Amino acid sequence: MGSETITYQGLKVPKTYYGLTDNFKTDEFDFEFNPKNSLMITGETTNGILGDEVSSRFSVGAKVVLSRENKDYEHLRLVKDYFKIDGDSPKTIIAVGGGSIADYAKVLAKELKANLVVFTTALSHDGLVSGRSSLRNNGIKGSYEAKVPDHVVAFSEIIESSDSDLTLNGWGDHISKYSSLSEWNFALEKNQGGELFDETIYNSIRNSLDNLSESYQNLFEYFVNSGNITNSFGSSRPLSGGEHAIAHALSDTKKKKGDLTYDLDHGKRVAAFGLFLLGIYEDVGEVSEIHWKDYKKEMINLGLPTTLLELGIGYGEFKDAVYKAPTIRSRYGILDHLGERLTDQLIDYSAKRVGLV
Questions:
Q1: SS3 state at 183
Q2: What is the 3-state secondary structure (H, E, C) of 235-271?
Q3: Looking at the domain assignment, is residue 140 inside a domain?
């Protein structure tokens, strides 16, 4: 295991379990609350994979099965309002599914002041235990306050038999931290935005990248540690930089066009956009955490796509997203720094040099 676990006094850290499903007993998770008569949040696919089994074992009182179209804040508000009218809100929410299910359940648990247990069925992104969630609201993705799970359970057979594409997205999300760390250090060096620095957090992220150990359990532990970092630092700043801003900008455009599948490859895309930004650093004479050529080798070793063509992204829409990225959130980065020097010529040169196009 390559990452250093972050511990802070007073920080809520979820209890985690990674192991076998065979004959699991409900009391082995050491819940400090009674999970019976809870509300389950799951998806159309994940309900069959694990939802029905967990529902039976824990005597779940009610179940909401989400389709791809209703994993958004508008739908969540309807569920929350139902329980307000009903007057009998669930004390515990059990989420069974991947990242989007966990994001939905974390916000609902926060707003209903409920306990939260997450049974994850895939390791596709690092927001699993973060106190923030990304949800669509009227077609636009936003960040919402969320409940940090009390428990997170990952069954090895289910994780290791999940769609390999989901896990690949998980590795993409993790390796993109080279880009986010570069931006964090860049902003600190330029003394922009009142940036804060935490050496323990920096070393933990860097160590997990430098000593990358490619196993499902390690990826699970990387993700848990990433969530703990976000919660202790107070934001995802060390873990999410311009590569994520480009992805969110492109996502907003896709959603407005009615494409509900775009976010499924989030991890692969932020990894590729990280490659582009690492090239930008060199092209304008700035320092990054890793040379883009070495980063690209890491991507190839993990089986990640390195071109827009492989990602199904048009070059024009990519360029539009690069220009829009600095407006997505108020975090200073290389794109903000360039200002009017961010031109078609620079984007073309960097994208071609790193092999993105």
A1: helix
A2: CCHHHCCHHHHHHHHHHHHHHHCCCCCHHHHHHHHHH
A3: yes
